[in-house]
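Human: You know discrete backbone vocabularies at least as well as I do. Show me how you would write down a chain together with its backbone fold. No explanation is needed for now; the record alone will do.

Assistant:
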Amino acid sequence: MKRLLLFLIMSAAFPHGLSASDSLPFPVSLGGEAAKDGTPFAKIANPVAADAELAVKSKSDMIIVNVNRVTAKNEPVPGSTPAVILLQGKTKTNIDKTMDGKKLPAGNYIMSVVSEGKTASILFTIK
């Protein structure tokens, strides 16, 4: 059942998760820093802690976050498994609250935040 839920979550987020956007559909901050629009993805300029607070300004009851490890060229790391974070009835959590309970190691990531039928894709680094 967990695998089915994970598959459905990833299926909902992936078609839009890696596409370029000119602006964020809703405000997102990580570690107290607001994501800034960029090309092709929004960015968190400064590295964050592995337990940084994630805040999404959304009216949705369900926010789905997929976090994928990327290379220095912002390409997916081959063989890496995305981490999934669910926000149900809240707009804040910490990025170490993944569904599988595993903390994200230091490195570069892209985070796809799905809410209100829209996706915000944000690059960030964990120190």
Observations:
- The two ends are 34 Å apart (CA to CA).
- The longest strand covers residues 62-70.
- Residues 73 and 97 are 27 Å apart (CA to CA).
